[in-house]
Hints:
Blueprint: E1 4-9, E2 29-30, E3 33-34, H1 35-45, E4 50-55, H2 61-65, H3 70-78, H4 86-94, E5 96-101, H5 112-116, H6 118-121, E6 126-130, E7 133-136, H7 142-153, E8 158-164, H8 166-169, E9 174-178, E10 188-193, E11 204-212, H9 216-222, H10 233-243, E12 246-250, E13 256-259, H11 263-275, H12 281-291
Parallel strand pairs: 1-4, 1-6, 4-5, 8-12
Antiparallel strand pairs: 2-3, 6-11, 7-13, 8-11, 9-10
Amino acid sequence: MITKAVIAAAGRGTRFLPVVKSYPKELVPILSKPNIQYLIEEAIGAGITEIAIVHRLGENSLEKYFSPDADLEKYLTDNNKVEYLDSLKNIWSKAKLTFIEQNPNFPYGTGSPLLTAKEFVGLDPFIYMYGDDLVVENSPGQFLSKMIHTFGQYQADEVVAVKDVGPVEIEHYGSAQYLDDPKYPNRISSMLEKLPSNLAPSTMAQWGRFVVTPKIFPILESQGLSRDGELWFTDASNSLAKQGIVLTQTLAKDEDWLTTGDPLRWLTANITVALKDPKFHDDLVKFINSIQR
Length: 293
């Protein structure tokens, strides 16, 4: 049973400057909740009970946001608005959150937050999540639950989330190179980063959800840096695929992945989430139709 997750939230978020000068980009809201809260609710929905958030050195905004505030709770109680904290209270009742400062001696890259959380993970399989990737689904955790099921069913070393983004968009992402292995459906040999569409092995793009064994840690610790001097999690996954079984999990028709890492995609994510919410859907549709005339 997988009970732990690590969320990478240690980036600078430079594409959101100047607003993220004072707080991390993971707290930029999607409607009324910060981006990272959706990830935590997703993890809880998949049965995760211990979540580590790896954040920038010296940054305490994330921990402050996810900590109880007695003065605020009293104010809301006195003004009959206690329901505004219901979503946070649900998190506090269902999961233990641990906040870990990014090791300043590690290089930049998606592998470093995970190395920082090695002690937290311990010896059991776990979930790794990129902090600026959002899943739109009918029930939080439904896709992650399927990843966990696939991981256990095939005794895999890793399961990687993918989406078919088509031949134009694949140039911006890592592309899955599949093996013909009847014993292990959707087994890959590697993820090949940002190739021209005519060279990409598939249109299945990797995004930020992974179910992984701790076998990844010695690989990360021993691998060299990429050509741009960064420590990439994908490089470690590719090495793991050479040693063991790495599979992919594809989104279903009622699920979608959105990246929120830049202002335009963040705006798109807000609109997408709002359109799925009955409280906002009709008014938003009216507004969109009015500006298209």
